[in-house]
Amino acid sequence: MDSLYGFALYGITLLTMGGIFALLSLGLNIQWGYTGLFNAGIAGFVAIGAYVSAILTTAPSPLHLGGFDQPLLVGGIAAMVLSGLVAWVVARICLRLRADYLAIATIGIGEILRLIFKNESWATNGARGIVKVPKAFESLPAPMDQLAFLALVLAVVSIVYLLLERAHISPWGRLIAAIRDDEQAAAAAGKDVVQLRIQSFILGAVLMGLAGAFLAQYLKFIGPNATDPLTTTFLVWVMLIAGGSGSNRGAILGAFLIWAIWSMTEILAGILPGDLALRVSHVRIFIVGLALQIILQRFPQGIVPENRPNITGGSS
Amino acid sequence: MSKLSTAACLLIAGTTIAAHAQSVKVGSVGAFTGPIAALIADVGSGRELAVNQINDQGGLFVGEHYELVVGDSACDAKAAVDAGQKVINVNQVVAVIGASCSGGTLGMVQSVTIPSGVVALSDSASASNLSSLDDNDTFFRTAVSDAYQGVALAELALSKGFKQIALTYASDDYNSALAESFISAYYAKGGVITANSMHEPDKASYRSEVASLSGGGAQALVLFAYYGNSGVTIIKNALETGSFDTFVAAEGMVHEEMVSQIGAENLQKAVFTTPGADTAATAYKNYLMATEEAGINATGPYVANGYDAAFVMGLAIEKAGSADRGKIAAALREVAGPPGTKILPGEWSKAKGLIAAGSDIDYVGASGEINFDANGDVTGSYMITTVNPDGSFNKVLMQ
Predict the structure, then answer these.
(1) How far apart are CA B119 and CA B108, in angstroms?
(2) Which of A167, A223, B126, B319 has the greatest count of CB atoms below 10 A from its CB?
(3) What is the b/e burial string over B217-233, where b = at least 16 CB atoms within 10 angstroms of the residue's CB?
(4) CB contacts < 8 Å between A and B, how many?
(5) B319 backbone φψ class: left, alpha, beta (φ>0; ψ -120 to 50)
(6) What is the side-by-side strand order in the sheet with B23-30?
(7) Angstrom distance (rounded) from CA A240 to CA B168
(8) What's the CA gap between B370 and B363, in Å, rounded?
(9) Which chain A residues are within 8 Å of B306, Cβ to Cβ?
(10) Which pairing describes strands B164-170 and B220-224: parallel, antiparallel, or unpaired?
(11) pLDDT at residue B172, rounded to an integer
(12) Which residue stretches of A29-98 are H helix?
C-alpha cells in the first residue's frame, strides 16, 4: 500500500508540473500556433511572473525587495499584468520584425530579463533567489495540500483552454489565423496587422506570467536557474511542436506527455547499477529528442493537428 | 499513447522488482547534468565510495544492502523538486543525500523534503539562507555554509592582534554575505571597524574608495572580493597610496594570479582563509587512500563532503535501528557529534560493532569534524593561508 500511495503522490507532482507547462504551451500556442510569432524568450516572461508574485506574496525580508505579504491572488494577477506590460513594450519594439528576426530578438530579450533578475540583487536576492514563497493550500494536511494545488492548476488550465477555444473560432481568432497565413492579404483587407500581432503576443505572455507565478508557488522558491532557457523556453517549444502547433488540445497533451517522458525516464536509474545510473540523467535529454523525432516522423503536424476555424459560415 | 503507458508501467514494475527486499535505499540527488555536471560526477563517486565501503564491511543491520537511488537535480529547482519527489515517493527512500546547487536544494527542501518529513543531507549547497528555513530539523549539510568563513576570518583577524580594521566588500551576493557574517562576529568579539564600505566590482581604479577607508587608525584592510574583479586593484591602490600594507581576505582572493600581479614581497603581511580539510589528519589520509584505490578524484570540490554525507547517513540509519524516516534526524546528530568513540572514514565494521554494543560514536570526516549545529550546519575547517617569499602559498589548519 505504501508504494501505491507513493506512486499516487508522484502522479500528483507529475500532473502539477505538467499543468504548469500546459499553461506555458498554451501561451506559446497563441503566439506561434495562432499568429506565427516566434517567441524564443519564454523564460523571460516566466521569470517576470515568478519574481513579481514571489516578491508580492512573501513575508517582509531584508534580502530582497519587499516582501509585501499580499494574498496569492494579488500576486497572480500582478504577475499577469506585469508580464503583459513588458510584452507590450517588447512587442512595440520587435513585432515589426519578420519571423526569424523576431526569434533572435526574443532570445535576446529573454536573456536580458533573466540577467536583470540575476544581477539586481537588491530586488531579487541575486543568484541566491527568493525563498519561503507561499503556496496555495499549503496549510492543508498532506496529501490534501498537493491535491488541492493540483486541482487549482488543472482548473486554471481548463478555463484557459475553454477561453482559447472560444477565441479560436471567434472573428478575432480567424483574423489572426489569416494574418499568420497571409499577412499581406489580411493587410490588404484593411486589417490592422501589427495591432493584432501585438494583442496576440501580449495574451501569450500573460499566460506565461501566470505559469511563472504558479511555478514560484510550486517550488516555494525562485532563483535564476529555475528559469533556465533549456528547461523553460526550449522544452516548451518541444511540447507545442510535438503536441500539435495551432491546436490547444495538442498544446496541453504535448506538455503532459513531454514532461512525463522527461521526468519518468529517470526512474530507469533505479534499475541500472552504479556508474550507469549516474548517466541516466544524460540519457533522458537524448530520449526527449528522440521522442520528438519519432512523433514528428509519424505525425508531421503534431499528435493533434490544428483544426482550422470554419470561415465559410461567417459573414465577415 | 497506450504503448507509452505500457512502457511506463513496465518501467515502474521493473524498478519494484529490481529493489531487493533486503536493501535500504537512500536518495542520491545531485546536479548530474547542467552547468556543474563535471564537478558533481566526482561528488557522486564520493558518495558511491562510502556506500561500497559500507557494503563491503557487512552492510546495514543484518546483511542488508545500502543502496543509493540517483536523482538528477540539474542545478535547477524544477528538476530538483521532481527528483526529490521521485526518490521519496516512487523509490521510497529512507532519506535523501543532496541536492547540489543552492537553488535546486532550496526548491527540493522547501517543497518536498520538509513537507514530507524526510531528512535531506546536502554535501554541496553552501548558501547561508538554507540555514534559516523552518525545517523541523530535517535539513542538514556536510557542505559548509558561506556564513562560517566570515566568522573564521573574524577570529583570524583578532588572533593576529588586529583590534581595529577597515572593511570593504564587492557588491555580489557571495562577498556581501561573507562581509555580513564577518561584521557581526567581529563586533561580538570586541573588534572595532573604523570604516566600512561596499564597492562595485570591475572598476579601473579604487583610489578614492581606498582613500576614504584609510585613516581612523585601522591596523589592516579586510577585503571581500574576487581577485580578478576588484581585489587585486584595491590592494595595488592601497599599496601605491601607502594607505594599507596589511590585508585580511577570504578564498576569493587566493590565486597564483593574484600573487603574480601584486608581487609576493608586497603580500608578506597578508593573511587569507580557505576552506579545506586538514590534509595531515588521519581521517583525511584514510579517505585519500580509499579514493586512490577506487580511482576517484579526491581533491575535487565537495568530493570529501559527498563521501562524508553518504558515510554519516549510513551510520545514522544503523543507529536508528530500522529504515524509519522519522528516526534519522536524531540519529544523525548522535552519530556525528561528541561524545563517543571517534570513527574515521572507512571504519564501518568498528562503528557497526560499537552501535550494536550501544556505545556512542562520533564521526570525524574527511572534510573535517562533522558536528551538526542547531541549523543542521557544520562549521568545517579552514586553513590560514599566507604567501611565502617565493610566491607559493603556505596553508596551516586553523585551530
Answers:
(1) 11
(2) A223
(3) ebbbbbbbbbbbbbbbb
(4) 151
(5) alpha
(6) B65-72, B23-30, B96-97, B120-122, B139-141
(7) 50
(8) 6
(9) none
(10) parallel
(11) 66
(12) 42-57, 72-94
Residues B113, B378: Cα–Cα separation, whole Å: 20
- The region of weakest confidence among B57-61, B180-184, B341-345 is B180-184
pTM: 0.81
* Cα dist from A244 to A103, A166, B283, whole Å: 20, 18, 58
Residue type at A116 in one-letter notation: I
Half-sphere exposure of A65 (CA within 13 A, CB side): 13
Written as one string, the DSSP assignment of A238-259 is HHHHHH-TT-HHHHHHHHHHHH
Test B111 with A221 for CB contact under 8 angstroms: yes
Interchain contact A222–B (C-beta under 8 A): yes
Distance CA(B145)–CA(A41), nearest Å, equals 34
Residue A126 and residue B12: Cβ atoms within 8 Å?
Answer: no
Place of cell 525587495: A65
Residue A2 CA to residue B299 CA, distance in Å, equals: 41
Angstrom distance (rounded) from CA A262 to CA A131: 26
Instruction: Inspect the interface and report whether the beta carbons of B103 and A225 lie closer than 8 Å.
Output: yes
Q: What per-residue confidence (pLDDT) applies to B6?
A: 47
Please state which of the ranges A266-270, B102-106, B267-271 shows the lowest mean pLDDT.
A266-270
Q: Kindly tell me the sign of the dihedral angle through the C-alpha atoms of B393, B292, A272, B93.
A: negative
Determine the 3-state secondary structure of B270 from DSSP. Answer: strand
Classify burial at A278, counting beta carbons within 10 Å of its beta carbon; exposed 0-12, middle 13-18, buried 19 or more: buried
Complex ipTM tops 0.85: yes
Would the CB atoms of A266 and B86 count as touching at under 8 Å? yes
Cβ B106–A263 below 8 Å, yes or no?
A: no
Stretch 17-36 of chain A: residues touching chain B, C-beta under 8 Å: 17
CA distance A232 to B78: 10
Element containing residue B199 per DSSP (H, E): strand B192-199
Which residues 6+ apart lie within 8 Å of B250 measured at CB? B149, B150, B153, B178, B224, B272, B273, B274
Where is B306: in which H helix or E strand? helix B303-320
- The grid coordinates listed for A126 are 541575486
Q: B396 φ, ψ to 5°?
A: -125, 140
- Ordered strands of the B341-343 beta sheet: B341-343, B361-365, B368-369
**B151 CB contacts (<8 Å, ≥6 apart)?**
B181, B182, B185
Q: Bridge partners of B271? A: B248
pLDDT reported for residue A96: 77
Backbone angles phi, psi at B141, to 5 degrees: -150, 150
Rounded CA separation B152/B156 (Å): 6
Contacts of A145 in chain B (CB under 8 A): 115
Phi, psi of B202 (to 5 degrees): 65, 30
User: Is the link from the previous residue into B238 a cis peptide, with omega within 30 of 0?
Assistant: no
Of B259, B246, B249, B197, the C-alpha closest to B225 is B249
- A158, A159, A161, A166: CA torsion to nearest 10: 140
- pLDDT at position B2 is 47
Enter the C-alpha cell of residue B156: 583570524
Q: Does A162 score more than 90 pLDDT?
A: yes
User: What was the pLDDT predicted at A39?
Assistant: 92
Touching B: A residues 84-123, CB under 8 Å: 121
pLDDT band at A313 (very low <50, low <70, confident <90, very high): very low
Grid cell 558518495 in the structure block, residue = B47
Which whole-number Å values give the CA distances from A11 to A6, A264, A313, in the listed order?
A: 8, 10, 43
